[in-house]
Amino acid sequence: MIPIYSQKNRIKLIVVIIALIIGAATITYTNVLVSKLSEREQELVQLYAKGLRYMINAPSDDNIVFIEEEILSSNNTVPVILTDENVNILDSKNIDIPENISNNPDKINNYLQREIEKMKAQHEPILVPWAEGSVNYVFYKDSELLSQLRYYPYVQLIVISCFALVAYFVFSYSRRAEQNRVWVGLAKETAHQLGTPLSSLMAWYEYIKSSPKFENEPILEELGKDVRRLEIITERFSNIGSVPTLRDENILQVTQNAINYLQNRISRQVKFSVESTFSPDITAKVNVPLYDWVIENICKNAVDAMEGRGSISIVISLLGKGNIAVDITDTGKGIPKSKIDSVFLPGYTTKRRGWGLGLALAKRIIDNYHEGKLTVKWSEVGKGTTFRVIL
């Protein structure tokens, strides 16, 4: 079964593709505008150079005044530097000189020379010939507006990415909150539905237990265990959605008790072993009914993976920083690497019948209610799997 939640990866991919298309379209369109504006600025500088050429080589008349006022002075955006044929600076326009050097001609000259190097990197200088055979050069670079426009799409993409990231986290939070409400509502309703028949079963059990007809009947003891088990299950569902009480419990004993109950209700061809690599009296903070539920769900999945035949070993070890690890290893068919990240998703199952909620619920109990961690420590196809519970 493919879980509905796995479709979110497709949605993410679609969103990424749309974002890339928008980004590519934005960059392409902006580059077209930049290209047109760059051509316009280049034409403006060429016109500026032609005006200089005319003023240098033409006699003084009213046309020179017109050229100076209407052509040369019209360039108030494109930075230009006029030099002689030896690249000695003659004049500059639209270049901001830092205030700390504005009164020092040598520093100004050095600053403009550095600007010329930047201009060379952007554009070839324009040649302005003199009548006597000498030349001037007009160096220029992109205007501030054009420079800003070049970086505009990238700034826009960063803003869009930040907005999308915030929206993603908000959406994920709201989705998790909705999922939590569904989990809690389902659990509370299940506990409520179990309450009435469970009370009736308990009453019938006490009635049968007091009857002389069933005195010393072995089945009565097993029936009592199942009734008590139903009480535990009801308590488990009641604890979902509320803050469970965690107590210091002997983790080896609690784990062994969970296995003892489970072993009598599954295939006898499955062998269990429970051991601790350190003191058997070590304690961990757990809620016993919920912790039992985790062990039960993991082991039942392991039994299904082994098809009712194999072994399950549970090893309790001490980690650093006061943490305890409970490693549950089976000899089943293992999990493919491509599926390891999916096993804890609600709805993921390899069985024909099943809701795919066992491992998802186990992870929620450990991660959310015990502030621990449930992971796949190791898995190899054809050899088995190890789940690790950290408390």
Describe what this molecule looks like in 3D.
The radius of gyration is 40 Å and the shape is rod-shaped. A 5-stranded mixed beta sheet has the order 6-8-9-11-10. Strands 2-1-4-3 form a 4-stranded antiparallel beta sheet. The chain contains 8 helices and 11 strands. Strand 10 and strand 11 form a beta hairpin. It starts with 6 loop residues before the first helix and ends with a strand. One of its GO terms (molecular function) is kinase activity. This is histidine kinase. Its EC number is 2.7.13.3.
Give a brief rundown of this model.
By secondary structure, the protein is of the alpha+beta class. It has helices spanning 7-57, 62-72, 105-122, 144-210, 218-239, 251-263, 288-305, 358-369; strands at 80-84, 89-93, 126-129, 135-140, 247-250, 270-276, 283-286, 310-318, 324-330, 373-380, 384-390. Strands 6-8-9-11-10 form a 5-stranded mixed β-sheet. A 4-stranded antiparallel β-sheet has the order 2-1-4-3.
List keywords for this structure.
single chain, 391 residues, alpha+beta, five-stranded mixed sheet, four-stranded antiparallel sheet, rod-shaped
* Main beta sheet strand tally, sense and closure: 5 strands, mixed
The neighbouring-strand order within the major sheet is 6-8-9-11-10
Query: Proportion of β residues?
Result: 15-25%
Write down the overall mean pLDDT: 82
- Cα Rg: 40 Å
The percent range for helix content is 40-55%
Number of helices: 8
Overall 3D geometry?
Answer: rod-shaped
Q: Which spans of ≥5 residues are poorly predicted at pLDDT below 50?
A: 1-5
**How widely separated are the two ends?**
31 Å
Query: In terms of structural class, how would the helical and strand content be classed?
Result: alpha+beta
Organism: Pontibacter rugosus
EC number: 2.7.13.3
Catalytic activity: ATP + protein L-histidine = ADP + protein N-phospho-L-histidine
Enzyme class: transferase
